[in-house]
Amino acid sequence: MDPPSHKKNFKDKEPVSKVEMAMQKSAQQELKQRQGAENYAFNRVIIELEQQQFHEFCKQMQHPGE
Question: So what family is this one in (predicted)?
Fold first, then answer.
């Protein structure tokens, strides 16, 4: 390969890598948003379970013989 064609190939690859980087960044942002939504939903479920357990505990403390 002669040097001018090498430079041409390098220039052709440069925009592709920028596009790929932009796609990766976009995919990472989408993943981060999805994980945030999943964490929010998971935390909500855990809080509800903790509240149910706390109410059951309170009932047991009010009526220890039952």
Answer: Belongs to the SVBP family.
